[in-house]
Description:
Elements: E1 5-13, E2 16-21, E3 26-28, E4 34-39, H1 71-78, E5 94-102, E6 105-112, H2 118-123, E7 127-134, H3 136-150, H4 158-164, H5 172-187, E8 197-198, E9 204-205, H6 207-210, E10 223-225, E11 233-242, E12 245-250, E13 253-258, E14 266-269, E15 279-284, E16 290-293
Parallel strand pairs: 10-13
Antiparallel strand pairs: 1-2, 1-14, 2-3, 4-11, 4-14, 5-6, 5-7, 7-8, 7-9, 10-15, 11-12, 12-13, 15-16
Amino acid sequence: MAQAWKCAGLRWTGEGPVLTWAGGRSSALARGRRVAFAVAEGGVRTCVGARGNACPVRAAVPGRSTGARCEECARLDRAHSVAADTIADDPRPYRVYLAWFGPGLVKVGITAQARGPARLLEQGAVCFSWLGRGPLMAARRTEELLRAALGVPDRIPYAHKRAVRTALPGTGAERSAEIAELHARAVALGGWPESLTPEPFRGVDHAGVFGIEGPDRCPAAVGEVAELVAGGAIGGALVAAAGPDLHLATERGVVVLDTRLMTGWELVSAGGEPCAVPVREYREAAAGVQDELF
């Protein structure tokens, strides 16, 4: 019987995306490499627990959940979270950033300075610029200032990011123009916290890192994996990776796999099996850009 592994999620390093597995093992992912796995027949997806602790009841979780946690573990995980705004006394320095995912898709956010650009890679930001740095609460107030004064959101649904990812402007200057203009408007605002130090605009472009620019850019995706299921399998060459998403060239065309759907399942290696998981197909707009999902 093939050995089963539990995926612990995707992380980004200086060398690129890495799949991590329970127990500490990891698998570096390079474009062109075949990624293939299956879920055993009769398999059940179980809660991944909270903050390094296993779920005490090994609760079953839905296949479409990107959090892979039961209600109680999700509550515990968010009880001590900067993202959930439940921490006010973190002494570490933080940075405020502006991130761009496609035309009209710009957000403001904060991340611990020590993490560098990792948070931006994890979110699939095509380009970004730092806006300022300072204590946590000063960074949080600046984030709220931009939301209130300029209408900049702090969240963008992944479905919106995926829908435009393979039809982006061709140059880094074009891709960064929107956040450059927004950066100038943001630094001109009054009401910045005194303890936050503004940072000059410096656009950082991830299109090459993700594999979505140039002559070798990945083809437009035909759909995305809706969920994994017991007995299902998927395999294909990795043609791009952005945030938690892997773009796999399958026999059905390029399909996007959100690796957060892998956590909680017992997975085994697969060979040449066809794409046998539910796929939500994209509807293409007349201009050739992916529009909303079915």
